[in-house]
Amino acid sequence: MAKRILIIDDEDHIRQVMRMTLEASNYEAGEAADGPQGLETFGDGSGWDAVLLDQKMPGMDGLETLRHLRERNPGARVIMVTAYASIELAVDAMRLGATDFVRKPMTPEILRNAVIAALAKPGPTSPPAGEPKGGAVELGPVVSRLTLNGFRLWPIACATDESHGLHRRRFMVRHPEGREQEVLVEIEPEAVDSIERAAHRRLPVGSAFWTALAERLLNSVLWNEGKVPAGGKLTIDGGRIDREAVQLAAGWDREA
């Protein structure tokens, strides 16, 4: 039996393109033009295998619709779709239970990959194969396993290079097609000093704050460029310390 995908988007042509893409891949697609209509069509969720949900809609926006969908069916697989992207929006969506996050405009391949990845997951709370399980050390915040444009990532290690004063965070990134690749994020001493000057507090390089900041940077690259960084490496230096990083540091209340 064909998998059934519900498309909730206020733009007629976007719904049509997504429907045609899905039907060409042997999915059955339904449509709704706004949040309330989407909820009515969704019902208790038992008739749908996944939902493609636009974020920016008049009246009830995507996040509010997502919350209601998850209240009706906590196991609902919901892929957020938006042209107005930010890491903060992605974090909010994941906290509310979104399964994936796809950026407009998207290619048919990106859409198909996102749907395939969502359908492969038994539920939003189930860790995918290959991620750290019982006994593993959690190196970052609860929302460390974000999915953006079909990519998925999680921290796997941290280490200090004493000879160069560098601290590293290592992440595993799973590509939409399932291939995994390690990415290294180096934290330079000048970045630590910049945070101390701007936020008026010292956050040691071993603090979980730097894991969160490294993850934020990697998320941004995956989202904006749609690929892992060249050479599988990123660097946090003084130039990477922006206003959002300072605000995060100023309010950081986790243990170092």
Describe the structure.
By secondary structure, this protein is an alpha/beta fold. It folds into 2 domains: 4-119, Rossmann fold (3-Layer(aba) Sandwich), CATH 3.40.50; 142-250, no CATH class. Helices cover 35% and strands 23% of the residues. The protein contains 8 helices and 10 strands. It has helices at 12-24, 35-42, 62-72, 87-95, 108-119, 189-199, 208-225, 243-250, and strands spanning 4-8, 28-32, 50-54, 78-82, 100-103, 147-148, 151-161, 166-174, 180-187, 233-236. The strands form 2 sheets. Strands 2-1-3-4-5 form a 5-stranded parallel β-sheet, sandwiched between helices. β4 (78-82), α4 and β5 form a beta-alpha-beta unit. α2 runs parallel beside α3 (62-72). The radius of gyration is 19 Å and the shape is elongated. It starts with a strand and ends in a 6-residue tail after the last helix.
Please outline what is shown here:
The chain has eight helices and ten strands.
Helices and strands, with pairings:
Elements (H helix, E strand, L loop, with lengths): L3 E5 L3 H13 L3 E5 L2 H8 L7 E5 L7 H11 L5 E5 L4 H9 L4 E4 L4 H12 L27 E2 L2 E11 L4 E9 L5 E8 L1 H11 L8 H18 L7 E4 L6 H8 L6
Parallel strand pairs: 1-2, 1-3, 3-4, 4-5, 9-10
Antiparallel strand pairs: 6-7, 7-8, 8-9
